[in-house]
Amino acid sequence: MNKLNIKEYKTKVGEVRYILRGAYIGTDVLTGKQVKTDIRGRTKTGVKNELERLKNEFKKNGNTKGKVSLETFEEVAESFFELYKLQHKIGTIDQMRSNLDTYALPAFGNKRISKITTAQIQQ
Hints:
Blueprint: E1 6-10, E2 16-27, E3 34-41, H1 44-60, H2 73-87, H3 90-108, H4 118-122
Antiparallel strand pairs: 1-2, 2-3
């Protein structure tokens, strides 16, 4: 891997943070343009990990920057849960999975997001 030019900077409150400007993610197959982004993090390792995550996500989405269409409640719930797993402890993750499987997915699983109303959620 090439040497990354990660720079250190200070926030307004004096905390040290790191930024990688113009990080190359890949080439968009639809437009043919290079996709670059700025990545910020609390640590240099965090910035490197975020870069790898973005590259993998870009490849997973078919090398395009276009948004993935989530139409059903189940698709949105699974997408949410993937991000939720990264930020919480195992016990909390297990409880959320149980709540999704027991309550949310049986009630709304195959319904389109655009068709779910507030009244249905409140019931």
